[in-house]
Design goal:
It is built from seven helices and 14 strands. It is an alpha+beta fold and 258 residues long.
Length: 258
């Protein structure tokens, strides 16, 4: 039976709920939902509407209130949930949560942005290197990995509406794109691009200049899988009719036992 999986940067779970996120979830009944940028502590959110739909939910919030944060909503209880990685940025800023289901593991991730200046860009590049090393180590223990979330990188020219104008923009810098090359070379498969080699769809649009209405976006949200799960990928697309955030959900159907 196929597993219906969604990764979604909601840019604030409380704001998304006010915009109909729970109703949208009820209409779609995904098996597994991974949220990024929740911007809330668990006790700040009324989860009854989500619980009523049959979801268990697990959180890793940032130490700083109203910032970052990731959460997993699952129809099935995982075997275990882990929020510590040993990477300081992940553990203090609520950037990674892990859930194990049988012989496979999902990592829900919110990679740092470098748009606020050189210091955060340097931190982002350090994080990328540390995260890749950590993921490779985890793969020795848990060989079947799904790594979803907001990577904050548009990989290739077809993943961004204006590659020339943004060649010096954080999120499309040569060193960031090179890291994505290295990520894929290390044996991680971009599910959407694997299934849709030349299709142009985006997952994030600026709030400025009517970007979403004009589809001037970036594809920066991903689900990657280890090579041994590549053949489980059935279908993937961007659910750009969902309007709870400046991002849209990335949906993937996988032939996995849940």
């Amino acid at each position: 039976m196929a597993l219906s999986f969604v990764s979604y940067n909601v840019n604030g779970i409380r704001a998304a709920l006010k915009k109909g996120f729970a109703e949208w979830t009820a209409e779609n009944q995904f098996d597994l939902i991974c949220l990024q940028e929740t911007k809330a502590m668990r006790d700040q959110v009324d989860m009854q509407p989500i619980e009523d739909l049959g979801y268990h939910h697990y959180w890793h919030s940032a130490e700083k209130k109203g910032y970052s944060g990731v959460a997993i909503f699952s129809k099935k209880e995982p075997d275990q949930v882990i929020t510590k990685t040993g990477i300081d940025l992940c553990d203090t800023e609520g950037r990674v949560i892990r859930a194990d289901f049988g012989d496979w593991t999902v990592l829900n991730c919110y990679f740092p942005s470098g748009t606020s200046g050189d210091i955060r860009q340097d931190i982002k590049m350090q994080f990328l290197d540390e995260f890749l090393q950590w993921a490779q180590e985890l793969r020795k223990e848990r060989p079947k990995l799904l790594i979803c979330g907001d990577y904050n990188i548009a990989h290739t020219k077809i993943d961004i509406h204006d590659p020339i104008g943004n060649k010096k923009s954080s999120g499309f810098l040569p060193e960031e794109r090179a890291w994505m090359d290295k990520w894929l070379e290390a044996g991680f498969v971009d599910a959407y691009r694997h299934l849709n080699p030349e299709k142009i769809e985006y997952s994030w649009w600026s709030y400025r200049a009517n970007a979403r209405a004009n589809n001037k976006g970036w594809r920066i949200d991903y689900l990657s899988v280890t090579e041994n799960l590549k053949n489980t990928l059935l279908e993937s697309r961007h659910l750009n009719q969902a309007m709870h955030s400046d991002h849209c959900p990335v949906w993937v159907n996988l032939d996995l036992t849940f």
